[in-house]
Write a structure and sequence with these properties.
By secondary structure, the chain is of the alpha+beta class. The chain is about 50% helix and about 20% strand.
């Protein structure tokens, strides 16, 4: 009698494995995707900071800041940040460098944007007053 009751459940473990494996793989891919996004976000933040350091020096310019940020991206994250855009501006008081792009994607169609802006006062020589 026990044999007759257990027959309809034959193969249920295989069916569960077939149904759950893709879901588990998708969850693993999402975790990896989040890790790549997190890393790309840190790379663009570091590139923006490097760019503003170069742009804020006394005899420097916005072009130098943009160039330094682009060089940093090319060295630190040439494949982790896709379609990078670097902008820089500088006036007499402050320098601003912005970096944006998209994190590399593992999950098809799941592109996450990354971006950062760094701002700093421009260095300048001030003579003694008094």
């Amino acid at each position: 009698m026990d044999r007759l009751l257990s027959r309809p459940e034959r193969g249920s473990a295989s069916t569960e494995a077939v149904l759950l494996t893709p879901v588990l793989l998708f969850v693993v891919m999402l975790v990896i995707q989040f890790g790549l996004w997190y890393h790309a976000q840190h790379v663009v933040q570091a590139a923006a900071r490097e760019g503003v350091r170069a742009a804020r020096m006394e005899a420097s310019s916005a072009v130098a800041g943009r160039t330094r940020a682009a060089e940093f991206l090319a060295g630190a994250g040439p494949t982790i940040v896709r379609q990078p855009v670097v902008t820089a501006s500088r006036d007499a008081e402050r320098a601003v460098v912005s970096v944006s792009g998209r994190a590399v994607n593992v999950v098809p169609g799941f592109e996450l944007p990354v971006g950062a802006t760094a701002t700093s006062q421009v260095e300048r020589f001030r003579g003694d007053v008094g």
